[in-house]
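Instructor's aside before we start: the two examples that follow are unrelated to each other. I chose them only because their records fit on one page, so don't look for a connection. First example below.
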Amino acid sequence: MYTFLRDGEFVQVTVEDEKVSGFVSRFGERDSDRGVFLDQFFSKASLDGKRLSFTTKPIHGTWYEFSGVISRGEAKTPDKEGYWSIQGTLKQFDLDDNKNVSSKSREVNFKSFPQNLKDAESPKD
């Protein structure tokens, strides 16, 4: 899991059998969903070497497109935030009540969540 735009939001990226899936979990920003936690699954995604791209399914008229690179982050160990990072361009699309689409683009750096290595290495009872 990786950080997203605001504290408490995240991106989950899964690669299995060379197929990429995942979702963005974020807080709604419209009057109809403000403060509600929303999961937006990827409608399409790809990983070519270290280049990642994805598009989310729209929820309440908002969706995202991302294109960037996965790389080692600044953290020294996996138990710290940012051991891995996904850097690139995130475009947010919004459909208004009149069916007009607006978009805004920004450079982002999604940082990996800390991994609890002790729990991962201990056998479960």
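Example two begins here.
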Amino acid sequence: MKYAYDEMYLPDVQKNLGFFFQFMLFSLGYSPKEAQDIFLNSIIPAQIEIANPDFLCGKSGFEFAMLALPKKNLTEKIEEALKEPFYPQAEYWSGFVLAYCQWKNNIPFNKILNTFPLENILNSYHLLHEADVTKTEQIIMEKIK
């Protein structure tokens, strides 16, 4: 199987999508559906899918948020988030898992999220967050195939 991009970039994409979704859901207060729609309607998914190195490892999760919400001034919210100690939550894990699924299966983010929405990934957190990410990926892909 051909992966979406070289595996060396995967940890960066997982981290950045993790930060993006935790920031969107936790810091900005968007619902999972709203955050999913904002993500899918932004340039971020397409740029990751075509392996644009700037989106694989050249931008942070906060920069993803600024790209996804270009009309919103996020400076103050980002500064607040940077002052707080960071503890990955279910929201972070959801971005981490989503990045892995897209990379491993080389399919568009919208195909994943339209079949297994972000809210479902979040709801899987308590049951699956201690399992290897491949277990969650298998469950998601069973729904898609």
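The two ends are 15 Å apart (CA to CA).
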